[in-house]
Amino acid sequence: MWSSAIRSHALLYIQLIIISAVLWFSNVGASVTTTDSIAFDSNQATISPPLLVKRNRIETLTTTAECDFFLCSIAGTPQAATTFLLGTITLLINVIAFFLALYNMDYPPLRAKQLLLVGLGLMGGCCWFYGFMLAAGLLIVPDLLPSCPFWTVVVQISLGSLTIVTTILLRLYRLFRVIVQTKPVQGLDYLLWWVVILLPSILIAIFGLSLPEEYVNFLNPETGQCKFNPTYKFVIISLIGLMIFIVGGSIYYVGKRIHISAFNEFRENKILLLFALVAFFFNLVFNATKLFHNSWAQMIVAMITLIIVHMNFWILIWEPLYACYFNREDYLMDFLIELNGAGQSSHGTSDPIYSNSTCVNT
Predict the structure, then answer these.
(1) What is the pTM of this model?
(2) pLDDT tens digits, residue range 274-323?
(3) Which of 86, 87, 217, 263 has CB 3.0 to 4.6 Å from 342, enough for a Cys bridge?
(4) Beta bridge partners of 217
(5) Which keywords label this protein (predicted)?
(6) Angstrom distance (rounded) from CA 48 to CA 57
(7) How far apart (Å, rounded) are the C-alpha atoms in residues 108 and 21?
(8) Which string of b and e fits 176-185 if b means at least 16 CB within 10 Å?
(9) For the segment 151-165, what is each residue's pLDDT rounded down to a tens digit?
């Protein structure tokens, strides 16, 4: 079990290094001038005429950019195009791995990963990444960008970052219900708790679409970026921070009632909480300061978002998916020992994770 865990984390770090290296080389080789390095002649007039189109599009036309990358038609800079391409490839690999896990969901350790929540978290990661790329002006899609409340509040926040935090909380609740309360994952009370946990994301989306744009999020004509109303931004940041705090408290509460705190399912939730704290910290710093309008800061946030989404997924799915094909019986035995040690017998739950230990090889 431990050797498998070491291999899984080593692979995650290698993937992180590869992504960072490719982005770094693409930035070094790019000769395009970004919004931060554009300088105008001091002899020009100090008062600029009113902008009729977005500033980022003006800069794209007025700078002599040597950008022959095929994605430059929808991205402002080669760096943004590279990030978009890396993100798309990375998320596509994750989607393929998820469907592979669904194909083999009869394998008990995979079924115990709560694949519905894994898929929900992956969907949230995709929405978070692409919603941020559009809202920050890193992607130039004229037909989509004007709807700032939809892409920023609904896609990036409600379906994105809030959904990821919500899935962690739902995983903890299901873990507590099955192992501590020994109750089935069904019934009216179970569905009621799901609704309560999902309610903040739903309300944020409803208010984001119902209120006028100037009270929520609107397109800034000077930068071509979506800009939050300060009050609404404070509400969203406070809500996300509160949900992360609730997740931390829930981890502490559930951990006190699971006999083995190193139980794999519980340990992974602590790692996911750490990733959520890192993402929240960087977004808080960039959104609370003028640093957010810096193109390099936007690139950093986009890459942090991509890396966290990628690692969130593989932390959950790598070990059982690898074991399903290459170490099935040994991993299954270790899984059952850990589960029994956590206080759960094979007859104490209605969750049918013991019915079949076969793995479909493709």
Answers:
(1) 0.72
(2) 888 888 888 777 776 766 666 777 788 888 888 888 888 998 898 889 98
(3) 263
(4) 228
(5) Membrane, Transmembrane, Transmembrane helix
(6) 16
(7) 37
(8) bbbbbeeeee
(9) 888 888 899 888 998
Count of residues in the chain: 362
C-beta separation of 34 from 295 below 8 A: yes
Identify which of 79, 94, 93, 58 has the alpha carbon closest to the alpha carbon of residue 139.
Answer: 79
The token pair at 290 is 């003028």
**Of residues 114, 105, 266, 118, the one with CA closest to residue 179:** 266
Token match 């209120």: residue?
A: 211
Q: Is the dihedral of CA 252, 257, 262, 267 positive or negative?
A: negative
- Residue recorded with tokens 């195009």: 81
Residue 303 one-letter amino acid = M
Residue ranges and CATH numbers for the domains of the chain are 78-341 (1.20.1070.10)
